[in-house]
Amino acid sequence: MQPEAMPGARSARWPWWLLVAAAVLAGSFLRVWQLRSQMLMDDEWHAVRKLIGADMENIADHFGVADYSIPLTLYYRWLYQQGTLSEWSMHLPLLLCGLALLLLAPALLRRTLALPERATWTALLALSPLLIYLSRTARPYALLALCGVIALVALRNWYQREGRSLGWAGVYVLATCLAGWAHLLSLLFTLWPLACVGLVALAGCLRPARRAQSWALLGHVWRLGAFVAGVLAIALLPPLLNDWDALAGKAATDSVSWNSFYRTLLMAAGTFDGFVLAASLALGVLGGVRLWRRDRFLVVAIVGAGIVGVAAIALARPAWVQHPAVLARYCTPILPWLLLLVAAGLVALLGRLRNAAVAACAVAAWLAIVVVRGPLPTWYYDPNQFMGHALFQFDYDPRANPYVTLFELGPVSPFYRELAQRPPGSVTLIETPAHMHSNYVPDPWLQRIHRQNVKFALAAPVCGEGDWDEYSYHATGAHFSRVGRLGDIVEGATWGADYLVLRMQPWTLPYGAKFPWPVPWPDMAACAARVEARLGAPVHRDAQVTVFALRKDPR
Length: 555
Hints:
This protein is mostly helical. The chain has 26 helices and 6 strands. Helix content is 57%, strand content 5%.
């Protein structure tokens, strides 16, 4: 069935184009808002630590014990060599991938999907909390989502032209190999469509009427598969040989449980509500049935990639896969396609509504329900510089998120409560020491109290030499706007900040001695004395913090 013959295709088109425009604007806003002020968190630091101590060849030839994405880290290393490595330059490529997905994915299927389906799909992509978050991080997953869409469409178009389209074959090779180079597990999803074509060709060989055609197609599949394997071997064989033991050591360590899989489905659906998930799954089944009538290969590729990919990841048992957020990220290449099934099902359900404006409003109402029953309302307040913190990303249900259930902030300095009396965002703090792992960062909770901007400083060497900093203060090519050096501050730099805050005690979650800081805590009393000798007496001192004014104290 052609998309023009679908229910509602005879209705006015403007409500659907209005939905597309609103979705693209909303999705762009949610991906860009406060991005320049975001702090790098958790795994975003893997690439920084690697590139500071390694050259291009070493980066390309290793995966590392702590995973970094090879092509991204090569790009970051190049920025570092130019002296332009910053939070914004690290985030920009993934932001562009996230924005491109909103425009490119529906456009690639404009001949298969009716306008209502494309509009609804665009809206689901735009408002997906997981896709929003991944577009805002310096990790490869937004790239994987984009490449996952491009690879499947390219392979489908190549197959429909019976393997005679070199252009689409080249696009498939590029998307698949780039995604595989960026993250190995993406190959579970991008290689499956090629395997589907091979199975179709093998099945056709058993039918005398199609035997010659199927043998020819099978030859095309072998040639394309060999070319993909060759390109992947060039990119991946050296790091596989160098780091095979490290990769093997991270397999067969943790397991996907039924509960963690259920919670992964919740994240993929963008909700913490089981009823919303059940409705989304039902819509996805309905959408799959409707799309089956038009494009069986597309549905088989989507469903097969989802089943095979998730099953393979579960059987491999990679480290930390028991956490829903980890499995959800690994499945990013298939996520846009699952949202397509939901979009097709929702449009099919509303097919009896002959008025396009009413149908588009019904879609908007469903989207509003998903947003309200999801995490987005808790992310977007000003300022919030820590959207990548596990408080927001570990699990969308507060009842299942240990960063909520195990939370204990401990004593809060009166200094922070005094800051809350000033206009939000009117004061900037530089805090140190700071270790940007979610278990050691109290700032998401403190920022809700003081409502001011935060920067961090490397404590060495003023507070002594140690491993309490994210990277060496000797690094010369990093010019982060949110992280600097305490040594520069005592020499008179301010970075536009109002106060320097020395943290006198470590903070961990769970709070207290039962979960200690990962490295020895510096002697902060001696450090404060050194800073005081250069900056003068502090404006506030208590058991938690020692605060120095970097500009005239406005109080």
